[in-house]
Amino acid sequence: MGYWMELFGYAGKILHLNLSENRLQKMPLERSLTKEFLGGSGFATKFFIDLMDPHVEPLSPKNVIAIMTGPLTGTMAPMNGRHIIVSKSPLTHAWGQSDSGGHWGAELKFAGFDGIIVEGAAEEPTYLWVSDGNAELLSAKEIWGLDTFETEHFLKQKHGRKTKVLCIGQAGENLVKFSAVMNDKGRAAGRRGLGAVMGSKKLKAIAVSGSNAINVHDDKMLLEISKEIVSQLKKNPRVNTISEFGTWANIPFLLKIKDLPIKNWLQDDLGDELNSLNKQVMRETLFVGSRACYGCPVGCEKTVLVSEGPYSMKESGRGPEYEAIASMGSLCLNFNLKAIAKANDLANRYGVDAITAGCMIAFTMEIFERGIISEKELGFKAEWGDPEVVINLIEMIARRRGFGNILAEGPKGAAKIIGRNSEAYAPNVKGESVPMHDPRTYLGKALMYAVCPYGPDHSRGSVAELYTGSEELGIEKVDEPTTRDVARAFSSTENFVEVLECMMLCTFQYASYAGGISPAYVPKLYNSVTGDKISLDDMLKIGSKLVQLKRDFNERAGLKAEDDNLPPRFREVPRYVNGKAVTVDYKPYVEEYYKIRGWKG
Ligand code: SF4
What we know:
Blueprint: H1 3-6, E1 13-18, E2 23-28, H2 31-37, H3 40-51, E3 65-68, E4 83-88, E5 95-100, H4 104-110, E6 115-119, E7 126-131, E8 134-139, H5 148-159, E9 164-167, H6 170-173, E10 181-183, E11 187-189, H7 194-200, E12 203-209, H8 219-235, H9 237-245, H10 251-256, H11 279-286, E13 287-291, E14 301-304, E15 317-318, H12 322-328, H13 337-350, H14 354-369, H15 375-378, H16 387-398, H17 404-407, H18 410-418, E16 428-429, E17 432-433, H19 445-451, H20 483-503, H21 521-530, H22 536-557, H23 568-571, E18 575-577, E19 580-582, H24 587-597
Parallel strand pairs: 1-6, 7-12
Antiparallel strand pairs: 1-2, 3-4, 3-6, 4-5, 7-8, 9-10, 9-12, 10-11, 13-14, 14-15, 16-17, 18-19
Helix pairs in contact: 2-3, 3-20, 3-22, 8-21, 12-14, 13-16, 19-24, 20-22, 20-24
The structure holds iron/sulfur cluster (SF4).
């Protein structure tokens, strides 16, 4: 039996490239690494920490990128089609991490690699072509300057229709600090500005194609477990709604619980505007189809097309998720659905994070209203709700044109350039914009946003388990959660999210607030694929270790406990819920969380 055959579930090789030296190296995947770090987030963490000096400037050639898949990627395990990217973020100058769905990760494994490590920087635009165990660096001069859809078209034409493409658009090339790494026409590792890191290395794309099957230890057991999971998903009404309408189906509910952000987090409620965000209206106005990540029976992705009028799209594309509808819609008081779809399409094509882009536009509208910037400085009036402003600013940011060149620096960087206390209107933690769930009203989000090592992230964990209890995660059901209950529940689910990200399973469907698949299934899936016998508890210990390693990296990079905070917008500006003013004090949650993690404040 060959060495690689013992590693069931893994492709057995890591591709290590140094762009400065034009050198490619295929490294065998050590069995000890799979035991200690499992895959995905674990592998990326280990490789990145081993190779990276935490003090390195994020956009210098010395920054390292680790792109990894998981042991279940490319198997029949449900919802396994994600990959993770880790680097030092140019937005937060700290741990940078983002992941994406689609089919690229599975194809990388079929091509013979579990992951790719990138060091150095090329002198000329370059792309990596990986095919059935072979890899070569090729000139990207012809595609430098193209958007992500055009890049994908070009590389598929050149290397074959089966090719899957991960790439940056013009935003990454222009080093926009919140540019995304895109794949599969609209899928995004959107956050932390990792597209700019690729751009700084002049690495335009990684195209992959392969025909190897993944070696599974016990196919029969994997099939049985997978069938059980799918049958549970199909019985879950939340999953069926998401499957039919996408993640935007919940907007009326999220407004009801005062979670949906409105007018840069200043407004509490909506009137008739809510009608335009109704799921049926959205479906009738925009939908043309559905797509799913590799191995996913849910298919939460809706494709949309605006075929005519001022917001017409060149072709159908991935529709906006809830986060994009909120950031480029309600956050800016923009309720023109076609304009939101167009703005999202532009963000996908230019390769810019739709969440932070929307936040920067809302910030612009607020500082314009407050007289901090003028029409003369902007070149136009940035009135709330004007869809033209939303569209224009996305283009200006991606191309670093005019005022867009300032906004491209992200919330902290832009506010520093503008001055006049403008950071108060660009809510951020560690330099990353706050995602589209309100920490004043959504229990647990304040803590989650404050302590996440890569800046505020809406899927880092949850505390929904407090209302149901989770024996597997050691969370007891409580009627009125205390600060300590919240901190305990979050730290447990945070460890579990790390495990899911080692497996590269969809955190959305394996989380209790959506698909609600029991955590006990995760080791069952892993053991059936790899032949290992790990328990959930041991997996969670690895999850906890990864939280610690990311924290340690940030400390060595110079971050302090004070960087675990929440902006004044949520501490000082109330949201009214049933007539009661609600703000949030994140500090007691952070103190309890530090005690659980054994950290000093
Ligand atoms: S639920 Fe959505 S994000 Fe998750 S795997 Fe399926 S299609 Fe991808």
